[in-house]
C-alpha cells in the first residue's frame, strides 16, 4: 500500500472517531437535560432518593468532555505520524477509573430502567422515555465502538509507526474488558431493546 494512502486513511479514521465522540458528548448532555427536567418539583418526593439515572453518569460526562478536547487537539492538528494510542492508553490504564465507571453504569442501569418504567411512566410522554432508552443504549455501546475505531486505526498503522504498539495495547485492553463483562453488556442491551 502507498504510504500516503495509508496515512490519509489513518487521518480519516481519526476524524471519524473525533466526530463520533462529538456526537456522543451531545447525547450525554441530552441525558443530563432530561435528568434535570425529570428531577423537577413535579416528580414525587418519595422517589427523589432513588435515582432514575446511574450515579456514574456525571463522571462519564466529564471524562468524555475531556476526551473530546484531547481528540480535537490531536486530530485537528494531525501531523504526518499522528498518534492516538496514548490518549486511550491513559484512559484505559488501571490508575484511571474510566472503565470502572462504565462497569458501575452497566450495573446500575437495570434498576434505573425499571424505576423509570414504573415511576416516570405516568408523568412523562412516551417519546421522552423512548429517547432516554436510546440514549442509554448509546452508552452501553460506546466501549465496543471504541474497540472498532481503534482496530480500524491499527489496520492502517505500520508496525514501525510510533502509534502501533500503543494501539495494540489499547485494543487488547478493550477486548479483555468487553469479554470480561460480556454478560453485563448483553443483559443491558437486551433490556433496552425490549423496553424500546
UniProtKB/TrEMBL annotation:
Pfam families: RhoGEF. It comes from the Eukaryota. Gene3D superfamilies: Dbl homology (DH) domain. Residues 9-184 form the DH domain. GO terms for molecular function: guanyl-nucleotide exchange factor activity. SUPFAM superfamilies: DBL homology domain (DH-domain) (SSF48065). PANTHER family: RHO GUANINE NUCLEOTIDE EXCHANGE FACTOR 33. This is Rho guanine nucleotide exchange factor 33.
